[in-house]
Amino acid sequence: MSEVKKDIEQEQPQLPLTPAQQVKSDWKALVDKISYKAIVNNIPYISFVALLGVVYITNSLRAIEMQREITKEKNARTELRWKYMDVKSRLIKTKKETEVIYNAEKLGLKPLALPAYTIETENAAK
Asked: How many domains does the chain contain in total?
């Protein structure tokens, strides 16, 4: 009787698979590929992919930390530039003639009314 069933199954023409049957057969093929033997055979590849993942994560974290450090340095540089500009503007203001005269008057000095002149001695002329 079992021979009869086999003969009947062999005699039936193979009908094209429906999409649901194709998905089911694809699923079975996928499960066969992910079997224990397949995993054991692919351990070098799996370990390589894991190593690449670790390197990728490490590199990403390092890049983020480096970007934060660059931002801190940029902010510090900007602040130092502001201080430089402030000190420079104060220096320019204190060097102005009117400021020098004002500060000299506090010390009891007065500006010259006549232009400056040089005193020469006879020994220095020869």
From this structure: 1
